[in-house]
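ok so I'm stuck.
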Amino acid sequence: MAIKPELLETLRQKRDKIINHVSPEKLEAMHAKGRLSARERINVLFDEGTFQEIGLHATHHAVHFGMEGRELPADGVITGSGYVGSTQVAAFCQDYSVLAGTLGKMQARKITRIMRYAIKTGIPVIAFKDSGGARIQEGVDALSGYGDVFYANVLLSGVVPQIAIILGPCAGGAAYSPALMDFVIMTRKNAHMFLTGPEVIKAVTGRTTTMAEIGGAEMHASVSGNAHFLAEDDQHAIAIAKNLLGYLPPNNTEDPPHNLAMPIDNQPDPDMDGLIPATPSEPLDMMAVIRRLVDNGEILEVHGNFARNVIVGFARMSGVVVGIVANQPMHMAGALDIDASDKVARFIRTCNVFNIPLVTLVDVPGFLPGIEQERGGIIRHGAKMLHAFASCTSPKITVILRKSYGGSYLAMCSQELGADMVFAWPTAEIAVMGAEAAVNILYRKELEKAEDRAATAKEFTQKYRDEFASPYEAAANFYISDVIEPSETRSTVSLALRKLLSKRELRPSKKHGNMPL
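replied:
not stuck anymore, here's the structure
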């Protein structure tokens, strides 16, 4: 017996009403601002025909403040899964055109349901955030819903990658969900993330501020460090997310998408030698070094506008996915400060949970001196790097290019912090402190008696650099694996990476270490 045509027609009408609820006029207005509708965002992310929605017909049960009987298409959020290339991905996309995308109990149920699906199937989650926050008409039910979402974020943390794409407002408690995820992408013009808006700040503190100052994408990408990537528009943000997925495994039990069919590059790169400045006091452009080391000169830099004295990002070396950690002497001489320590520690832990090998490039004069740094807790923040590197069991290769002094030598993944291989260029200087500072302490009396203090200091400095800061001193004590020519770096590291992919390292049984947060 055939199904009644009117039943099919009813279904089609219901679907059409929910899916096409945005009028052409509103859609045109969105496009004029560089914004896509929620369903357009889903369509851009997934390969055509692969998205399967769940909860299309779900609706709220609120009855107060005019909510009884009010229709909210899909309750303001689209949830489901599809394919991005060969990778299945779970996604939820808040719909700002439906009651400002506010979250109520049903929306939270839909979000947590797709997150549970992701953890059961071992697939990444992409969250499109575009919401006015908690749905005040639902009161404590909305707050309970946020609690459920936060709990799910933490449950998935370290198991499957979680990527938040913020394309509009992300207000109040809504901001904590992306903060609990692995990566945050924000669009430059339309995205805002904040706990309390300018009006509340004015009322409580009397201080006048703007949305850009407290919640703008550029601020979060460069000042607060809450955003990892800055996108120009919705399309660009989704493209960044897809690029990011190309470096990550679907879950913590699998390896990253290495291309091991690619032959290991064993050719020297003489042009690398030309990147080294003539004198140690001149800054080395670490990004230029990185681009010569990685495949096709391509690196997906993470936190590119934040703590620019260090560089972190994903790349490939002879097909092997790697996480790059490097000092950038072009900014603050590459010294480590509070923000840089947080940036590096977070990236190390991300690489570790997803089995991504780490390549650390060192040219660091030390931790940044200063009253603000000491009072701000540089000891505690710097210890985060020590803890992150020491607890990381992914393959770890360190290359010391030039300066590597004091505690920062250890913080940049020395052998003692668990590096599997440590290579040094002939230009490396490994010591407790820089030669100039050491000479002023060790040869203070001789300098006081010298007729030409400057000339004597220069002589002692060169002697100290040659005898005590030389990479051969560290090599003689087996603190480094080998001294290599700069031109050999790519081939040496590429070969070592292949050999380390089978690395297994057991640690004492415990819930987790107590990181100095």
